[in-house]
Structure formats: C-alpha cells, structure tokens
Amino acid sequence: MDTPTEPATEHTPSQPAGFQRARSDEQREARRRAILGVAADMVGEMPVADLSLNELSRRVGLAKSNVLRYFESREAVLLELLDSAWRDWLGRLAAALPDGVDAAAPARTRYEQIATVIAGSLVDDRLYCELMSVSAAVLERNVSPEVARRYKLAAIANTNALAELVGARLTELSPQGALYFAAGTLVATAGLWPQAQPSKAMLSVYEEPAMAVLRLDFGTAMYEMLATVLTGCVARWPATPPE
C-alpha cells in the first residue's frame, strides 16, 4: 500500500495553522506517539467502528495526508495501538501474578488464583479488550502484508510471553499446554468482551426477568472460562505425561 508523498511546502490549505514538519527521528517518533495517544483516547470514548481517520487527524492537529505518512490506514494505527496495549497489560499482569498466586498452594487452588488474577486484570483494561475484540474481524482487513506481518510477529511474542507467565506459576502445565491456554485467553477475551457490552436496546431487554440470565458480567464470565480452560489444558498437556 503506497504512502502519500510529503508536500513540498511547509503549509498547504490542508495543513492546520502552526504545522511543522517533523525533521528528526525523535520528532517523527514523538508524532507517532501523539497519534497513538489520541487514538487511545478515542477508543475510550467510542466504539472502534465510529473511530474515523478524519476525526483522528483533526484531534491530532494534522492533515489526514500527514497522518498517513506515519500509518498507512486507520487499521494500521489501531493494530500498533493494540500491540502497545497488549504489552502494557502483560507488564501489569507480570506484576500482579506473584502477589495473587500462592506458589505453595495445591495445583487446583493455583488454577483458580491464576484465573482470578487474569480476569481481574482484563476487567480494568478496556483499551486492550476493545481492540482485541475487533482485531481479526476489523483491524486486520485494511493493512498491507508488511503491516500484517509485523503485527503477527508481535502477537506471537505477546502470546508466548503470556504462556511463560502462566507456566512459571503452574509448573504442572507443559509449555505446549501453557501456549494453548494463552491462545485460549485471547479467544475468550475477544469473544466475551463484546457480549458484555450490550447496547441500550439489549439492556432494556435484559431487564425482563426471563432475559436477565443472558446478561454477562465480563469479569465473572472470564474467570469461569479461564479456570475451565486451564483445568483442561493441565489435564491434556501436563508437564509430566502419565505413563
């Protein structure tokens, strides 16, 4: 996908007043971070479907063509934002697991503790959950092979990092089992998050006693899903296979 060439002049009718071209690597990186920061704020305010490149450009204070020098599309912005949010979440999870999981507890207890810590960390991370929930269906659809490959390499690294965090707290689980659990965590997040963000129409339906059971609490649903998947992974891929 071609990136628009940079205009020859410092100011054009499409550029906001006060626009200054980023000339150094530091300035260009600062502008990329600014674009990502504004995009993160917008995800906190609106569904991803409503986040347009035009509005993003306006809030950043750049012409759309200038934003496209740094990211080839809206989706490319959000994929990079997802990777950043993913790594931030992993960092917080790495800090939370030692306090939340008793290394001396029985394996069954540690299943539940790991599920509790992960679910709780996700409840508090709307940015990551929102982007993960639309990653495959939306964000991967309007990017070049180069951007897609870079994102997928980052996703592999992030998934492996989650597997290592879990495996370190549950030595009964083989590395393969930890990897499958990590992948299952991503799928559960992507599937449960949108189900737990009902529209106003659905909220009114859930007020009916017969329908109330359909309303999901994200934290509770994630805990139950993760505890179940982790139990199954240990049974199927134990660190020491049964003879």
From TrEMBL:
Every HTH tetR-type domain range: 29-89
Keyword Flavoprotein: no
Organism annotation: Rugosimonospora africana
Keywords from the named record: DNA-binding
PROSITE patterns, alphabetized: HTH_TETR_2
DNA-binding region listed in the record: 52-71
Record-given protein name: TetR family transcriptional regulator
Region (Disordered): 1-26
Matching InterPro entries: Homeodomain-like_sf, HTH-type_TetR-like_transc_reg, HTH_TetR, TetR_C_34
Single GO MF descriptor: DNA-binding transcription factor activity
